[in-house]
Design a protein that fits this description.
There is one protein chain. The protein is an alpha/beta fold and 418 residues long. It has two domains: 2-220 and 401-417, Rossmann fold, CATH 3.40.50.2000; 231-399, 3-Layer(aba) Sandwich (Rossmann fold), CATH 3.40.50.2000. 37% of the residues lie in helices and 17% in strands. It is built from 13 helices and 13 strands. It has helices at residues 14-28, 54-75, 98-102, 118-125, 172-183, 197-205, 231-237, 261-275, 308-317, 332-339, 370-381, 386-399, 402-417, and strands spanning 2-9, 32-39, 47-49, 105-108, 131-135, 190-194, 213-216, 245-253, 279-286, 298-303, 320-323, 344-347, 362-365. The chain has a seven-stranded parallel β-sheet with strand order 3-2-1-4-5-6-7. Helix 1 (14-28) links the parallel strand 1 and strand 2. The model has no long low-confidence stretch (mean pLDDT 95). Residues 102-224 form the Glycosyltransferase subfamily 4-like N-terminal domain. This is Glycosyltransferase family 4 protein. GO terms for molecular function: glycosyltransferase activity.
């Protein structure tokens, strides 16, 4: 069975990381798997870029700016949603690429930012090959937004989009929804997979995906790489005090409105009188504007971390990983933390409940309740027994390992080929 995964790139965010992990998991199962991307950032031999020359890289960059700049300058309601909406009006035809032509299964992942337009996606799904599409967010079944927030227009026909400066019945979101009506005109052509049960339920509510097969399969993770490390050794390496309670927070971009850092600030304010100087914070990820002085405890900001070995060390040296996200699917950071035996505190939203078992391997706080989020951090810090840590690790081993997830995908592939 020849499987070709398709993603915009192979590193630099949650979806690329998840797609790359699935590629590795399938290879470990002895499958003939490969990955087609627009831009290659790793050295993996099974990843092939479409933009592989000066001219094709220039075209790819042009497509990126052609999609993003008009939206950012003219169409977005404000800066917070500049990258939260994708029109997919431009892209590259990859139907003639060798790995696409030779594949028995085409497996789409995240293809935005100028890689695949809705027209390109339509062409791929009409090649006569079984197509699996793993959804890492809501984009496939909305008029253009990646997460709808409290909006439910995707259940009908979009329009009146809150992310747009010019919002009306037949606005940009409605036009995007209409283009996808053609893409999704035949439920026999695509099988959808969502990374969480929450996203599967949202997809089933959508007007665009009625009649389609929708499965929920989580992302895989390397449980040898992401495993508990020596706390004392790694605190010394990262210059983190051995006698402090360490709270870890991170994201690709910590200022992303979905990641909810403002809720973390308010929760830490509630904890300050209780813990005084006994807590310190470690934060990783891109930060262009957030003032760390707003946090009431000492902060160790380590910036972007490219090495998975390094990030595993940060999880392992921490007492708790916190994610105050208000919209998320199945964040890799939570799975990574649990695999390293680090309990997680999160809001009960999106796919978080698929990973965090309340008061068993972490704490699921009431949605947007700062007080309950603070209670969750207290619960973990005040229960330093090995049970939370062991439960966290076991949750991942039983549900998210390479072996478990790869086999679930192989079952889907076989069902389509049969």
């Amino acid at each position: 069975m020849k499987i070709t995964l398709i993603n915009t790139t192979d590193a630099g965010g949650g979806a690329p990381a998840a797609c790359m992990r699935l590629l590795k998991a399938l290879l470990l199962k002895g499958q003939d798997a490969r990955m087609t991307v627009q831009q290659k950032k790793t050295e993996h031999p099974k990843v092939t870029p479409v933009a592989n020359s000066f001219w094709t890289r220039l075209i790819a960059k042009y497509h990126f700016y052609r999609e993003r700049v008009p939206f950012m300058l003219l169409l977005s309601a404000d800066k917070s949603v500049n990258f939260a909406f994708s029109t997919a009006k431009v892209g590259t035809d990859i139907t003639d690429v060798e790995d696409i032509q030779d594949a028995d299964i085409l497996h789409l992942h995240w293809t935005n930012q100028g890689f695949q337009s809705t027209r390109n996606l339509t062409a791929l799904t009409r090649m006569g090959k079984p197509v699996v599409w793993t959804l890492h967010d809501m984009w496939a079944f909305t008029g253009g937004c990646h997460y709808a927030g409290e909006c439910d227009h995707f259940k009908h026909s979009c329009g009146h989009c809150w992310m747009l400066k010019y919002s009306y019945a037949k606005d940009l979101s409605y036009k995007g929804w209409r283009r996808k009506m053609h893409l999704f005109s035949d439920p026999s052509l695509i099988t959808f997979v969502t990374c969480s049960n929450w996203l599967a339920n949202e997809a089933r509510k959508s007007s665009l995906l009625k009649g389609y097969r929708i499965e929920a399969i989580p992302n895989p993770i390397d449980t040898d790489l992401f495993s508990p490390k020596d706390v004392a050794v790694n605190r010394a390496k990262w210059k983190i005090p051995a006698d402090k309670k360490i709270i870890l927070f991170g994201a690709a971009n910590i200022m992303d409105r979905r990641k909810g850092i403002i809720y973390l600030v308010e929760a830490l304010e509630l904890l300050k009188p209780l813990y005084n100087e006994n807590i310190e914070i470690v934060i990783f990820g891109k930060n262009k504007a957030f003032d760390m002085e707003l946090l009431p405890f000492k902060v160790h900001e380590v910036g972007l971390i490219d090495s998975e070995t390094d990030i595993a060390e940060l999880y392992s040296l921490s007492d708790v990983y916190v994610t105050p996200a208000i919209e998320d699917n199945l964040p890799n950071t939570v799975m990574e933390a649990l695999a390293c035996g680090t309990p997680v505190v999160a809001f009960d939203t999106g796919g978080l409940a698929d990973m965090v078992d309340h008061q068993q391997n972490g704490y699921l706080a009431e949605f947007k309740s700062v007080a309950d989020f603070a209670e969750g951090v207290k619960f973990v810090l005040n229960n330093p027994s090995a049970d939370l840590s062991n439960n966290a690790r076991q949750k991942v081993l039983q549900n998210f390992s390479n072996e478990v997830v790869a086999e679930k995908y192989l079952e889907v592939y076989r069902s389509l080929l049969n």
